[in-house]
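Figure caption, in words: inputs first, then the predicted bound structure.
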Amino acid sequence: MSEIAEQKVFSPPEEFKKNANVKSEEVYEEGKDYIKFWEKRAEEMIEWFKKWDKVLEVDEPYYKWFINGKLNASYNCLDRWIEKGKGDKIAYIWEGEDGEVRKYTYKQLYEEVNKFANALKSMGVKKGDIVSIYLPMIPELPIAMLACARIGAPHSVVFAGFSAEAFRQRVEDAGSKYVITCDGYYRRGKVLDHKSKTDSGIEGLDIKKVIVVKRAGNEINMKEGRDVWWHELMKDQPAECEPEEMDAEDLLFLMYTSGTTGKPKGVMHTTGGYMVGVATTMKWVFDVKEDDVYWCTADIGWITGHSYIVYGPLANGITSIIYEGAPDYPNKDRWWEIIEKYKVTILYTAPTAIRLAMKWGEEWIEKHDLSSLRLLGSVGEPINPEAWLWYYKVIGKERCPIVDTWWMTETGMHIIAPLPGVTKLKPGSATFPFPGIQAEVRDENGVCKPGEKGDLVITTPWPSMLRGLYNAHEKYVEEYWSKYGFGKFFTGDGAIIDEDGYFWLLGRLGDVLNVAGHRLGTAEVESALVSHEAVAESAVVGVPDEIKGQVPFAYVVLKQGFEPSEELKKELIKHVSTVIGPTARPADILFVEDLPKTRSGKIMRRILRNIAEGKEEVGDVTTLRNPEIVEDIKKAMTERKL
Ligand code: WT7
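Bound structure (WT7 present):
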């Protein structure tokens, strides 16, 4: 560990420090009284229709913030900037993959949102109805989200790249009666037919209305009485819709994420605390100012996009970029071209994208003037020091601090992250908990010593924390509060704190993988595999991948009457992609006779992980019911490689 601690430390550049939103370490001191700290932020960052009576109410393991406070998220993102005379400021610059550009001022975005809010009402959507949104990266996605927020209908956005089956599961679990989708969209120049995917996802479900955005103009089916075109619905809607007065604890949205079982969990975020958390971290961690052009490359379909493309940036009244397409279309310099074109000042992306850019080579970057950049961000997985240094040198030209932000769907906002005008950075470390938040690294024996590896646990409540899992109380308790008890939020990530107090995140522990910054349960992939007629049983483990960080590797036991073959392997990989989505595709499949199991029948994944990684020492096999299988699997693995 000491070698990590001894690595070079990067202090904030003087110029940066001088102008930073947060200039002094005193905020950490202030954060020690976290109730007061967050109350102050709630006053500063958000406009309330009615002030709260109390900051925090605890009924373990449930937490409520800003009791009886009333507000509206869309009002905080739109109306207040117009009232402050900033209506003509650009909120979003959207660039389509095909080069089409649309710009929205705060006033124009406000009008679209208000019209769509009225449109939703005209379709019968009421306060409290959960609306499922299945849209790609087009402006109608944030417009739909904000319109839902305006009328108090929680949204549940499902990443457009997810399969029909994955969409179905999420619509069903949320009990949505309303769906917003599109005809098709562009990916690497091709039109993807999104409407048929939507249709097959909701087949047989009780859906009242499907609103369809026309994006690609591809031929689609519209179901009489159920499906309505967005543009037709919008035609005569008034551009004013009174924002609903929402309670701080009213549900703002659901975001489904992977857990340890095959079923996704609906993480609940409420209005008041979430807005305070994302607005504050946006301002402090990304140091956003009036004239910044900020670009987060994530998809709005994930929590990163919700917090740091939609609610965080808009609640700070800044200008953001939204890009529809792939980083390598038409060429591998598309991103750098966008940065040059719009003079992007803050770039927030994922280590997997950075490693891909490293692989593609610097010639793509050298073609462009990136001198507008002043701050870089990273999220989604641990960033290896090599990628950090490359990002710092090649993209940031050694001028831009890097904020490595650790957080998760459940936290809603950054939890461990630097303050770029204050924190001395160590490449590969997300540094310290945000002011007002305390975290520790522990195991069953207590808090770990510096340099010792353990579980990352958050020990103070924070305003944008999840308020539970939708219709799954027991699961909520079990996943987050059972390992260390109430008051100690179990994150599922491994971590080390070094001698200087820096946090080093080590990735997910156990049964959850992180593939290119996307969370994926091994159980999800396994259940997709066994849903194929040829598969009797399967075990999926994560193996390291140079670009994506981790990829799934599957062991498959076939049913009687099926023979291993290259074709079957391909078919199974494709099957997983159809059932879950392309991110879940196993990198490879090994057909085996049996899986190593304990006497109680539990699959020993540790052994399988070691074999998949090509390790000689696979670990203790003495507790296995079938130890002989280990040698067989090892042999099959070696032969596979030949
Ligand atoms: C998991 C959460 C919230 C961001 C998008 C992913 C990993 C996230 C970092 C980071 C190391 C990170 C963790 C976490 N992760 N950011 N800066 N350093 N690991 O959200 O799908 O809820 O996944 O992403 O393992 O648990 P998510």
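The first helix runs from residue 2 to 6.
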